[in-house]
């Protein structure tokens, strides 16, 4: 077994799973297979508004007439969601999309396929989180760049100097204060806004 394969198995064994499904044979099958995989399993029905602390993955029965609007289903920091469905009609498929699921298992549940669904869902969820972080970081970088450009123009106008010189002034100030240029730029923009608001009409 490779180191990567061992890491996947170890990750699954440390998984805290929540099964949101009525108490019946399907739930017993799912709980049993998850425990055989090594997961810590909690179950509930109907779906609660708050999950057990530290829940990693939720197996959620998608039942449109009872589908609640739950905060953890739309939270960026929410768990991996594996939907459980019994039919494939338009109403169920719409509810499936709305659940933000990362994987699907189909009733009647069987032990075979649960492990594969769990691995793929966890992998997809992790990939999505990494992409979201990269996008957020890129947005922050772009905003910081726009703020610096705006601050450079403000300072150049105030001091009557070229923008290249205004840029160097902001950079020197950031170095001296040991902060980022965007922080200096934000302070400068804020000061400019205050001066505008306090100026007499």
Automatic annotation (TrEMBL):
GO molecular function ontology, one term from the record:
RNA binding
InterPro entries from the UniProt entry: AmiR_N, ANTAR, CheY-like_superfamily, Sig_transdc_resp-reg_antiterm, WH-like_DNA-bd_sf
Q: What is this protein called in UniProt?
A: AmiR/NasT family two-component response regulator
Species annotation: Tepidamorphus gemmatus
Q: Where would I find the ANTAR domain in this sequence?
A: 128-189
UniProt xrefs under Pfam families: AmiR_N, ANTAR
Source organism, top-level taxon: Bacteria
SUPFAM superfamilies xref list: CheY-like
